[in-house]
C-alpha cells in the first residue's frame, strides 16, 4: 500500500468519478484507474461500486478512506512540525467556520494569525455542528468553530468554549412584530426562514420550540445559504433564528435586521472550537488556537467595558 494510492483513493471518493479525480490530481485517467486497481488487488477487496454515473465507496472503501484521511492529516501536521523546526515559517491550516459565527471572532483570529505567519497557507470552509465534527475527527480540518448546544454530545473531541451566546428570533427593522416584546408562543403561526446546512439549523429551530412545550411552526422555508436567509428576512415578513452575538458585532446592521425583544430567555447555543482529543497540535495549530483565544478574550473585554 503506497501513500500515492491512498491519495488517489480519497480523490476518487470525493470527486465521484475517476475522470474528475484525475483532473484534480493532474494525472491521466488510466493512471488513477491503475492505482485504484492495484490497491484493491493488494487488499483483496473492492473499494468502489462502479456504475454508469460514477463510483461510490463500498463498506471496505469507506473504512479505508476514513483511515487514509487521518494518515493524510498526520502527514500534513508532520510537515508543519518540520517547517517550524527549520524556521521556514510555512505550513498549512484548515479551518471550518459556521456561517452564523463567521463575523467578529473567527476573522479577527485569522487576520492576527496571518500577520505573524504570512507564509502559512490557510484554508477556510463552511461547516455546522454536529455534521462538521466528522471532518475534525478524520483530520480534514484542524479546527471547527461553530455554535453548539449548552450540553454538547460526547464526540471524543476536545471542545473549548470561546464565547457564551444564545439564539434569538430576528426580523427586518420595519416588521410588524418588531415593535413590542414577544413570547415564543406568539411566533408559532408566523412565517419562518430557517438557515440549515445539514440537519443542524432545523434541530436548533425545532428544539427551541419543543423545549418550551410548543409545536414548531409549520410555515417555514429551509435555506442552505446564510446570506439568502438574511436577505429573505430583510425583504419579507419572515422571522429567522440567529446567534445574538451577530448583533453585538454589528454585522446584522448591514442586512437591516433586528432581534426581537423576548419576554423569556432563549436557549443557549455557545460559540466553541473543536479539535481532535489527545492529539498533539503542531506549532501552526497552536499559534492559531492562541489567536482564537485572544480574539475571544478581546471581544469579551470590549463588550464588558
UniProtKB/TrEMBL annotation:
<dbReference type="InterPro" id="IPR050950">
    <property type="entry name" value="HTH-type_LysR_regulators"/>
</dbReference>
<keyword id="KW-0805">Transcription regulation</keyword>
<dbReference type="GO" id="GO:0005829">
    <property type="term" value="C:cytosol"/>
</dbReference>
<keyword id="KW-0804">Transcription</keyword>
<dbReference type="InterPro" id="IPR036390">
    <property type="entry name" value="WH_DNA-bd_sf"/>
</dbReference>
<dbReference type="InterPro" id="IPR005119">
    <property type="entry name" value="LysR_subst-bd"/>
</dbReference>
<dbReference type="InterPro" id="IPR036388">
    <property type="entry name" value="WH-like_DNA-bd_sf"/>
</dbReference>
<keyword id="KW-0238">DNA-binding</keyword>
<comment type="similarity">
    <text>Belongs to the LysR transcriptional regulatory family.</text>
</comment>
<dbReference type="InterPro" id="IPR000847">
    <property type="entry name" value="LysR_HTH_N"/>
</dbReference>
<feature type="domain" description="HTH lysR-type">
    <location>
        <begin position="1"/>
        <end position="58"/>
    </location>
</feature>
<dbReference type="Pfam" id="PF00126">
    <property type="entry name" value="HTH_1"/>
</dbReference>
<dbReference type="Pfam" id="PF03466">
    <property type="entry name" value="LysR_substrate"/>
</dbReference>
<dbReference type="GO" id="GO:0003677">
    <property type="term" value="F:DNA binding"/>
</dbReference>
<dbReference type="GO" id="GO:0003700">
    <property type="term" value="F:DNA-binding transcription factor activity"/>
</dbReference>
<protein>
    <submittedName>
        <fullName>Transcriptional regulator LysR family</fullName>
    </submittedName>
</protein>
Amino acid at each position: 500500500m503506497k501513500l500515492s494510492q491512498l491519495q488517489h483513493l480519497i480523490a476518487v471518493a470525493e470527486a465521484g468519478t475517476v475522470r474528475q479525480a484525475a483532473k484534480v490530481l493532474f494525472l491521466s485517467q488510466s493512471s488513477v484507474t491503475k492505482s485504484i486497481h492495484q490497491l484493491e488487488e493488494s487488499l483483496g477487496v473492492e473499494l468502489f461500486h462502479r456504475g454508469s454515473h460514477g463510483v461510490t465507496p463500498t463498506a471496505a472503501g469507506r473504512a479505508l478512506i476514513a483511515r487514509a484521511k487521518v494518515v493524510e492529516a498526520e502527514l500534513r501536521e508532520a510537515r508543519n512540525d518540520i517547517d517550524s523546526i527549520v524556521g521556514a515559517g510555512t505550513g498549512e491550516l484548515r479551518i471550518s467556520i459556521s456561517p452564523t459565527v463567521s463575523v467578529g471572532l473567527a476573522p479577527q483570529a485569522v487576520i492576527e494569525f496571518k500577520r505573524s505567519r504570512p507564509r502559512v497557507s490557510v484554508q477556510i470552509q463552511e461547516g455546522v455542528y454536529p455534521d462538521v465534527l466528522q471532518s475534525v475527527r478524520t483530520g480534514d480540518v484542524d479546527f471547527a468553530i461553530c455554535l453548539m448546544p449548552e450540553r454538547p454530545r460526547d464526540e471524543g473531541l476536545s471542545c473549548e468554549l470561546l464565547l457564551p451566546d444564545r439564539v434569538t428570533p430576528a426580523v427586518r427593522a420595519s416588521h410588524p412584530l418588531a415593535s413590542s416584546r414577544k413570547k415564543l408562543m406568539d411566533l408559532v403561526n408566523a412565517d419562518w426562514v430557517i438557515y440549515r446546512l445539514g440537519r443542524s439549523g432545523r434541530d436548533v429551530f425545532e428544539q427551541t420550540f419543543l423545549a418550551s412545550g410548543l409545536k414548531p411552526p409549520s410555515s417555514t422555508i429551509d435555506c442552505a445559504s446564510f446570506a439568502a436567509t438574511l436577505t429573505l428576512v430583510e425583504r419579507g415578513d419572515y422571522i429567522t433564528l440567529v446567534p445574538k452575538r451577530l448583533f453585538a458585532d454589528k454585522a446584522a446592521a448591514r442586512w437591516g435586521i433586528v432581534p426581537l425583544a423576548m419576554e423569556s430567555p432563549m436557549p443557549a447555543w455557545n460559540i466553541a472550537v473543536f479539535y481532535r482529543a489527545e492529539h498533539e497540535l503542531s506549532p501552526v495549530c497552536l499559534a492559531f488556537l492562541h489567536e482564537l483565544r485572544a480574539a475571544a478574550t478581546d471581544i469579551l473585554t470590549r463588550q464588558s467595558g
